Amino acid sequence: MSRMQTLPRPRATRARARPQLRPSARPALPAAILLLLAVAARAGVAERTQEFLDFGAGVLALVSLTSTVLWGLAATDRRLLGSAHRLLAQGVHRGLAVAGLGFLALHIWVKVAEDRTSTAAAAVPFADNTQPLLIGLGTMAGYLFVAVAVTGAFRSAFSGVGSSRRWRALHMAAYPAWGAALVHGLHAGRPAAGWATAAYALCLAGVAGALALRMRSRLREERAGRGSRGGAS
């Protein structure tokens, strides 16, 4: 018998690569944040942001709520839009409503925080000491927009025929609310800047045009319905 030779185990030809220690940026992150805040404070970013919010949050709220009204009108169109497009329009309509209410809350908070108006005047219509009518219109518009948003969120509760009519009547409050907000925005604060006036003018033209198209479409539908009933008789 041949003597069995025990072969030595082959050694690993390649040594395991040792993990390389990479320099971490975490210790420098707080210093970078502090440096950024110092530069922003030096440049007056906080004051400029506050100034923009003082006069811009209301404009953003009105533009968002105007877009909400326009997309709401588009979501009811059955002549040009299919069911899928109407669903998309309804989604955009609801998203813009949430954004508009957010800007509205920010606008109210900034005005109260800077003593432009009182908390009582922001909560109770026509309770402001200096501009009761104009501030009151803004307060009323805010309440109406919130009521429209709540009824829109709980539309399923108005599923009956009579309840559906009440829901439409409540949802139509968005139009007087929008008009009151427009008057409030134009005359309650300082004279509007050129871009703000242009934004208000576009809002007015957009809603007026959409309402005119909607009324024209309804008149055509009513005439077509009368014609079909007359032909059937």
TrEMBL record:
Residues 1-10 have a biased composition (Low complexity). It comes from the Bacteria. Residues 1-23 are annotated as: Disordered. Keywords: Membrane, Transmembrane, Transmembrane helix. The chain crosses the membrane at residues 53-74, 95-113, 133-157, 169-186, 192-213. This is Uncharacterized protein.
